[in-house]
Amino acid sequence: MTKIFKRTNSSDLDFIELIKELDFYLALKDGEEHSYYAQFNKISELPHCIVMYEDDVPVGSGAIKQYDRETAEVKRMFVKPDYRGKGSGTEILQHLEQWAKELGYTHTILETGKRQTEAVRLYSKTYEVIPNYAQYEGMEDSICFQKNL
């Protein structure tokens, strides 16, 4: 099995297809709250995206975008269900963190839903829980994380 991590942007067709799968998955998990969260997950302006391939098949994605001068926000993390449980999410996250460092950021932040138990478990390994930021303030089903790079 050969893994490749391609740096790209949100116009990449493989990235777009993975995000369609992610949005379908999140709509099921989030239920009625999905439309609220969806407004913060547009991909039209994401210049720093990663697509992970296993044997030339796109299986996962992630992105970073500027939150402020020192902070990159991790967005659109996804691994296809058949490829989960093998460390792929961790690898994508590590590639995004390395890219954020190269761009001069000193830490990363992210938000996920408490119902996305796989994501919460992943982020809890290396990130610390912080108060919900910006548009997630007051959202009981959101959990926010931060990591110093």
* Low-confidence sequence ranges: none
Average pLDDT, all residues: 89
CATH C-level class: Alpha Beta
CATH topology: Aminopeptidase
| CATH architectural category | 3-Layer(aba) Sandwich
List the helices and strands in order: EHHEEEHEHEE
- Name the structural class: alpha+beta
Give the distance, in angstroms, between the N- and C-terminal Cα atoms.
29 Å
Major sheet size, sense and barrel closure: 7 strands, mixed
Strand content: 25-35%
C-alpha geometry: globular
- Mind telling me the C-alpha Rg? 14 Å
Portion of residues within helices: 25-40%
Number of helices: 4
Number of strands: 7
Polypeptide structure, described:
This protein is an alpha+beta fold. It has one domain (3-148): 3-Layer(aba) Sandwich (Aminopeptidase). 32% of the residues lie in helices and 34% in strands. The chain is built from four helices and seven strands. It has helices at residues 13-30, 34-38, 88-102, 117-126; strands at 3-8, 48-54, 57-68, 71-79, 107-113, 128-130, 142-148. A seven-stranded mixed β-sheet has the order 1-2-3-4-5-7-6, sandwiched between helices. The model has no long low-confidence stretch (mean pLDDT 89).
